[in-house]
Every structure is written in C-alpha cells, then in structure tokens.
Amino acid sequence: MSVAYDAPAVRADSEPFVSRSAEVDRLDAVLERLADGGPSVVDITGEAGIGKSRLLTEFGVRARRRGMTVLRGQAAEYERHSPFQPFADAFAWVGRRDLEAVPELRELPAMLRGSFEEASSGRWTGDRFGLYQETAAVLGRVRGTGLAVLLDDLHWADPASLELLDYLIRHPLRAPVLLVVARRDRQTPMVLTTALTRGVDTGAVLRIALGPLGERDCVEELARDLPPRRAAEIYAASEGNPLYFLTLLQAHRGSRPPLMPSPPLSAPAEGPTGSGPRTGLEALLLDELPSLEPLERRILGATAVLGDHATPEMLGAITAVPVSEVVEALHQVMKRDLMRPSNAQDLIAVRGDG
C-alpha cells in the first residue's frame, strides 16, 4: 500500500548550478512538447561528478513550477537483487498532494510501490510482460498537468527495472508522463545502452550527454575571489568536472590537500583530517571502495603512489602479485571508472589525477 503524506517539494541543491543553459533549454523544450508527442524518456549521461544528479534536480524544480507531479528514485548497487528498486524508490514516496494530482498512482502494481508480497509469490517472475503492460496502461491514463519520474544512477539498476524501461521505450506513453534517467556511460550495462540508443533512433528518447564545463564559467561563477592564474590552475586540474573543481576549490580555500588519506569507513561523516564533512569527491571515492576486492584496493593505492610510473609490471613488482592478476584487478577497477589508461603507453592513472 502506498504511503500518503505531504511530500517535500523538489528543491535546488545547495551546490551552484553552473553553465548548463543549453541542456536546460532542451529539457524545457521536452516539457513544452510533452502533450504533443515529444520524447517520453530523457537520458542524461556523463562521467561521475559531471553534474547529472544536479541537472535532475534542476529539471525537477522546473517541472514542478509547471504544475507537474515530480517523483524521484535512485538505483543502488547493493539493491540490484530487489526487483524494480529505483521505481519503487520513487513511487514509495508518494504524498497526499501527489495522489490528488495523479490518482492513477494508486493503481500501479504493488511491486512498483514498494510492496514485495508479489515478489515472494513469484508473480512478477511468471508474468513480467503482464506487469509491464499493466504499468504502461496505468501511466497512460495520467492526465492533467502530468507526471515526471526522475531515476538517478540507473547504471546500477536491477534487471527487472531495465526490462520495464525497455518496454516503456518500445511502447511510448501517449500521456503527459516523462521518465528522466541519469547514468554513467562507462558503467552502463549493454542491455540498457542498447534500449536507450534504440529509443534515440525512434525518437522516443532524448539523450543529453554532459561534457566538461568551460573554464570561463567555472572561474567566473565559482572562483571570483581567487587570482585568475590560480583559478585557471584549479580548472586545469579538474578537467572541467564540476565536482572535482568544487572539491579542489574547497581544498584551496581551506588550505588543505583535497585527497589526503581517507578516514576509516566507519567514520563516513568526517573529512580526511577529521575537521569537518567530507567533500563531494571524497564521498564519491569512499562510496566506491567497499565494493572493491582486497587486491583491487591494493592496486588502486599502489597506482596512486606510483603516479606517472604506474604500469602493470611495476604494480606487480611492488605488490608481489603476478602481472596477470594485476591486469585482471586493473580491469575490474577500470570498469568502475576509478582508473583509466594514461595517454602514455602502458601507463595507468587513478581517475581524477589528470
């Protein structure tokens, strides 16, 4: 059963929203065309820290200003075993005002509203297609000012969620309903990439790929108090990634290195020196570390120490691990986009080091 209460309004993050006017204009255009057969799915892609979640938030604010009901869910790596987890995350937080505006939300299948009674009975595994049809039929009956469902970190989504999204892409909704998903390109399962790309080809999906921010935007809007040369150096180190830029900027203003040794995972609220909350980049890295195998963590740490000298052979030498095992560990860490091959031949760099 859905929980009914007064849900908090979607609001802008505390982080500044910089220079995404072109992307916001495209999202506004989708809202304008929503009732006229425009795309029913928006696919926001980009690397970690590039601003996908922040753009989702900005879109939610704009959609709500137009009178739309806005719900938001997030996929999580550790909940991949839970069917329809990001959808349930969104639909479980339905408020009274939301139900008044979109009464059809009460008719959604129980599993999409956070109830797992059907999962224990096996209904969804035996009649997945029927569940997808039922979901599409319910959403297709939405009228009024419309519904926007924002799904973040979809690269971690469970298989059932990916199947449902694929169905909704292949059978576009003829209703004022918009699904907006955000994902990391390099970590997206092939089945999701294929479904979204097919939707782009048919016009059901609008893809917005976020690239680096421009130097002028970062420096003028975020670092006006810094000498131009120092601000330019920070921008160059960040490579235009807004999370990296803000983290380096915070470190500079606080006169401390941004990536000093991390605190124990049991103390996630503190920064590297115990002097305050973690920066966004520190939180991002620490969130990824628990999922790594012990050898993968050793390789990541050794690569950070070696810097420009990191090669599979050198990593094997200092960790006393066969090169073949080093290469496999590197492959797994690179799949998480924590490392990337360096421009120099055979060199490896920790993601964010340059």
From TrEMBL:
Molecular function per GO: adenylate cyclase activity; ATP binding
SUPFAM superfamilies for this protein: P-loop containing nucleoside triphosphate hydrolases
Domain Orc1-like AAA ATPase: 16-180
InterPro entries listed in its UniProt record: AAA_16 (IPR041664), P-loop_NTPase (IPR027417)
UniProt keywords, alphabetically: ATP-binding, Nucleotide-binding
Record has Nucleotide-binding as a keyword: yes
Region described as Disordered: 256-278
PANTHER family: TESTICULAR SOLUBLE ADENYLYL CYCLASE (PTHR16305), TRANSCRIPTIONAL ACTIVATOR DOMAIN (PTHR16305:SF35)
Protein name (record): Orc1-like AAA ATPase domain-containing protein
